[in-house]
């Protein structure tokens, strides 16, 4: 049984964020954490999904993946969130899930958990940094310890985003490449290490 528990919670329409979420989950697991990979519930109407081939295809491919619940957040020591950017903010599907966490927040169940986030946008400068910092606003309210990747590894000088791993999908046409996947993997490993150290420190305090 692992000494650390990680929940990777994400929303993805055409698969870019999903690929990064998988990489994060695998890296956290390789770093010795027990991991739950969870998508959030889709809110878009069926006709909207069907109108976009990539969206419809990805929805079918991931239809059996478990949906996130509040129990996943309470269970975890480390929370890794990913969402595509929508007008510089997290996609509504993930935001709606975050908006259901009031009971956990009110009971102090999210205090001192480690949190980190990542994103994908259709275009360069399409809101990657603002989406990540917007997600972090929620973590401040929860009382989490936010762990960014910074420039704490050589991959970050290639990826170039110290706030969190990010990807430019060219309107869903380009999947995350090796640099993006290595960046989110590093971010996940770093977060696992800090979450483990924090958990040990708090237990001995």
Automatic annotation (TrEMBL):
Domain Flavodoxin-like, residue spans: 6-191
Recorded family membership: Belongs to the WrbA family.
Keywords: Oxidoreductase
Chain segments annotated as transmembrane: none
PROSITE patterns reported in the protein's UniProt record: FLAVODOXIN_LIKE
Tagged with keyword Oxidoreductase: yes
Protein's recorded name: NAD(P)H:quinone oxidoreductase
Source organism per UniProt: Saccharothrix lopnurensis
UniProt cross-references to PANTHER family, sorted A to Z: FLAVODOXIN-RELATED PROTEIN WRBA-RELATED, FLAVOPROTEIN-LIKE PROTEIN YCP4-RELATED
């Amino acid at each position: 049984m692992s000494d650390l528990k990680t929940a990777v919670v994400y929303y993805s329409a055409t698969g870019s964020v999903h690929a990064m979420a998988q990489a994060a989950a695998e890296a956290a697991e390789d770093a010795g954490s027990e991991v739950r990979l969870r998508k959030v519930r889709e809110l878009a109407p069926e006709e909207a999904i069907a109108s976009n081939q990539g969206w419809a295809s990805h929805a079918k491919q991931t239809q059996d993946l478990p949906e996130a619940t509040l129990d996943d957040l309470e269970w975890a020591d480390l929370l890794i969130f990913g969402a595509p950017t929508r007008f510089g903010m997290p996609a509504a599907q993930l935001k709606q899930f975050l908006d259901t966490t009031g009971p956990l927040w009110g009971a102090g169940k999210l205090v001192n958990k480690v949190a980190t986030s990542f994103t994908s946008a259709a275009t360069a400068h399409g809101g990657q940094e603002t989406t990540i910092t917007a997600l972090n606003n929620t973590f401040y309210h929860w009382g989490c310890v936010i762990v960014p990747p910074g420039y704490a590894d050589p991959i970050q000088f290639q990826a170039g985003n110290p706030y969190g791993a990010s990807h430019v999908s060219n309107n869903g046409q380009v999947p995350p490449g090796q640099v993006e996947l290595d960046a989110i993997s590093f971010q996940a490993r770093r977060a696992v290490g800090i979450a483990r150290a924090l958990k040990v420190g708090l237990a001995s305090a």
